[in-house]
Each structure stands twice: as structure tokens, then as C-alpha cells.
């Protein structure tokens, strides 16, 4: 499955901000320098979607905030909703 992701680097916390119009907006604490944000994105998605890091690939956008990610088919929209709910509970604003 392919997923469009917009990364917001140098954020105060790691979280999925929203999922709208087919784009997952992810806030990450890492800066967009030397691939640090890309590595953190893969780790973050791996932990939250319960898949191996090696199963997640950045197909396009390695040097862009807008990325195309390939993830296993076992990840479904309900997983995204669950993660967003958990993030909101942990990071109330």
C-alpha cells in the first residue's frame, strides 16, 4: 500500500497530526538534516503501525517534506485512526 505523507520537522513532539484528503501529516522532532527526519519517520511509523522498519520504504520525496511511503497491506485506515486517538490522549493541547 502507498501512503502520501507530509512531514513537519523540528516539532515539539512526534505525532500524527491529521489524515485528510489522502495525506498523513506527521510531526517529528528531528531536523531535516542528513536524513535524520527520514530515519525518525520510518522508526515512528514502524512503532505505531507495528511493522518492521525494513517493511517501510520511502519511494519518493527523500529530500522533500512531501513523501510517498510504501507500507505493508496489513496497515489499514483504522490503524491510522487508532494512532491519532492515542496521540491526542498522550499530547492534549
Explain this structure to me?
By secondary structure, the chain is α+β, with helices and mostly antiparallel strands. It has one domain (2-74): YggU-like (Conserved Hypothetical Protein Mth637, Chain: A). The protein contains 2 helices and 5 strands. It has helices at 36-49, 77-90; strands spanning 2-8, 15-20, 23-27, 57-60, 66-70. It has a 5-stranded mixed beta sheet. β4 (57-60) and β5 (66-70) form a beta hairpin. The termini are far apart.
- CATH homology group: YggU-like
Structural class: alpha+beta
The number of helical segments is 2
Main sheet record: 5 strands, mixed
Pfam families: DUF167
InterPro entries: DUF167 (IPR003746), YggU-like_sf (IPR036591)
Protein name: UPF0235 protein A2149_03270
Organism: Candidatus Schekmanbacteria bacterium RBG_16_38_11
Amino acid at each position: 500500500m502507498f501512503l502520501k505523507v507530509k512531514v513537519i520537522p523540528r516539532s515539539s513532539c512526534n505525532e500524527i497530526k491529521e489524515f485528510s484528503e489522502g495525506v498523513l501529516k506527521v510531526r517529528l522532532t528531528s531536523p531535516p538534516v542528513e536524513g535524520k527526519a527520514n530515519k525518525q519517520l520510518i522508526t515512528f511509523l514502524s512503532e505505531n503501525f507495528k511493522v518492521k522498519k525494513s517493511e517501510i520504504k520511502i519511494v519518493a520525496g527523500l529530500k522533500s517534506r512531501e513523501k510517498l511511503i510504501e507500507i505493508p497491506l496489513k496497515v489499514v485506515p483504522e490503524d491510522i485512526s487508532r494512532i491519532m486517538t492515542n496521540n491526542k490522549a498522550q499530547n492534549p493541547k
